[in-house]
Design brief:
heterodimer; A: mainly alpha; rod-shaped; B: mainly beta; four-stranded antiparallel beta sheet; 4 helices; 6% helix; 47% strand; globular
């Protein structure tokens, strides 16, 4: 209770004026009746009744003090409770903030994934429009084979043509040579027949 | 402070001089986010660029004043058809020339351009418009799709035009860069999407989209006005329906049943966002289904941009045939509109 000044006491008393009015008056009355009872010359029954009455008032005062103490305890505990709830709510707020940030990141990821999927779908649509690779490869192979076959035939035909050309060439040159030889022979014969009449005429 | 001579020099237009009819006929053609992601630059058909502060407009205590630009200035004499941001610079294209503005200076409301360059157009009769620009980060070059049927390549480091890609027979509507393969794609009014090799400058492939039966819409025409790629896949549309192509096999994988002509499309996570004719943003799945169409204020849309550079201001903004730019914080609905 140390250095509690009068001012503070008066201030506190004025503050709890509303509640304290009844109790304060009761305590004052008790003190007054106590002093009166101490100094009263009255009969022992009166003194006894007075004493009983004072005990009653004292009990009332004690009762009200007990009540106030309990209310004070209750308030303290309520304060603790509220503090707990308050810190709980704060924690919830921060965790909700964190969750919101997480969800935002998730949304970004999901949007990227969706964009990729849509791009994939768009490309797939186009690719579907083009014919299958295996079929095209098979067609290419078949065309290749045909090409080879046809070039083979062409080579054969070319070779035959060359051969026939050469054969004809040989034939024609032989014929020409024969013609030459025949002409030469004829000329020789003519010369010979011209020479012999000349010899015979001599 | 409001010295008219000073203001005339810096080309800042005063808001109370803007008459109502001007706002009525305004169209937003291009948008670009700042490298920090906190500002949006938008270009309109009057040649003005407006800077909006996204941080202010998206803050919980934003007012209608925050939905107005923090800075508006006239950048070009013709409409600003294309805006592009690098790490520190805003590139704007209008009236046949490209201007560069430093972002930090713009944020400080200093509207002096760093440089203005004009590609060497062969014809001097009329000035071709620049319809689209794209940056190739590999060699720090800027591809410019112009109305003279060519794609001009500007080397940003040295500031000189290093190549001209010729091949299209009509003006180039859109260009985009295929990063992984170091190729450039360009879509043109002549209905062809050409793929150019960045190193040799030759046209590697030419896809005539209108010749494919599944995509062609002869009633709209054959021009390609919208092109975007993510290296493996390409979205293109315009006269023909918006279609998704697989670039390796050069074949169309999905055609999207959107009725109007699409002017800009983008890949976003697992979806495709497309804008064009019609007062809505179409959300489509890669398979070809249209998941939904989100209504917007402008009657038709020209430009769509996602703020991927910032984590707190991750918004989608669309602009088109009105002075309002719709901002979407959640892709499913329009949050609010910025207005010029």
């Amino acid at each position: 209770m140390g250095a509690v000044t009068d001012d503070e006491v008066i201030r506190k008393r004025l503050l709890i004026d509303g509640d304290g009015a009844g109790d304060d008056r009761r305590i004052n009355l008790l003190l007054k009746s106590f002093t009166k009872w101490c100094h009263s010359p009255g009969s022992p029954e009166e003194g006894f009744t007075q004493y009983q009455r004072m005990l009653g008032t004292l009990a009332q005062c004690e009762f009200s003090m007990g009540k106030t103490l309990m209310v004070y305890d209750m308030n303290l505990r309520e304060m603790e409770n509220y503090e707990k709830i308050y810190s709980n709510i704060e924690q919830n707020i921060t965790s909700a903030h964190d969750k919101i940030a997480e969800c935002k990141k998730e949304i970004q990821r999901a949007k990227r994934i969706r964009k990729n999927r849509q791009e994939y779908d768009a490309l797939a649509k186009i690719i579907q429009q083009h014919p299958d690779r295996h079929e095209t490869l098979k067609q290419l192979e078949a065309l290749d084979k045909e090409l080879q076959h046809l070039s083979h035939i062409k080579e054969n035909v070319d070779a035959k043509l060359e051969l026939r050309k050469k054969q004809f060439h040989v034939l024609l040159t032989t014929i020409q040579e024969l013609q030459q030889t025949l002409e030469n022979d004829e000329k020789l014969d003519d010369d010979q027949s011209q020479e012999s009449p000349a010899q015979n005429g001599e | 402070m409001f010295d008219p001579f000073q203001l005339a020099l810096t080309n800042v237009s005063l808001p109370w001089h803007r008459l109502c009819p001007q706002l009525l006929h305004m169209s937003v053609f291009s948008q670009s986010f700042s490298p920090c992601g906190r500002f949006l630059a938008a270009g309109n058909n009057y040649g003005e660029i407006a800077l909006f502060s996204l941080a202010a407009a998206l803050s919980p205590d934003a007012t209608t004043a925050n939905q107005k630009p923090v800075l508006t200035f006239t950048a070009h004499e013709g409409p600003v058809f294309s805006l592009l941001s690098t790490d520190s610079v805003l590139l704007s294209a209008g009236n046949g020339e490209v201007s560069a503005w430093n972002w930090t200076e713009l944020i400080k409301k200093n509207v002096k351009p760093l440089w203005t360059k004009r590609p060497n157009y062969k014809s001097s009769l009329e000035i071709p418009e620049i319809n689209s620009m794209a940056i190739n980060p590999r060699d720090d070059s800027l591809a410019i799709g112009a109305g003279d049927n060519n794609v001009h390549i500007l080397d940003l480091e040295h500031g000189a035009f290093k190549a001209t890609l010729q091949g299209h027979t009509d003006y180039v509507h859109c260009v985009c860069v295929r990063e992984r393969e170091a190729e450039l794609l360009s879509g043109s009014e002549d209905g062809a999407v050409r793929m150019w090799d960045c190193r040799t400058g030759q046209s590697v492939h030419c896809i005539e989209v209108h010749k494919y039966e599944s995509c062609a819409r002869p009633q709209h025409g054959k021009w390609i006005s919208c092109l975007t790629t993510d290296s493996d896949w390409m979205l293109c549309g315009g006269g023909p329906s918006l279609s998704m192509w697989h670039l390796r096999s050069l074949s169309p994988t999905s055609v999207f049943p959107l009725s109007g002509c699409q002017r800009q499309a983008a890949f976003h996570q697992d979806m495709i966002l497309a804008v064009g004719d019609g007062a809505f943003v179409s959300h489509c799945l890669l398979g070809g289904e249209v998941k939904g169409q989100i209504p917007c204020t402008p009657p038709s849309l020209n430009t769509l941009k996602l703020n991927t550079k910032s984590s707190e201001h991750r918004v989608l903004t669309v602009g088109g045939g009105s002075s309002k730019i719709d901002v979407f914080t959640n892709l499913s609905y329009r949050a609010f509109s910025l207005s010029f």
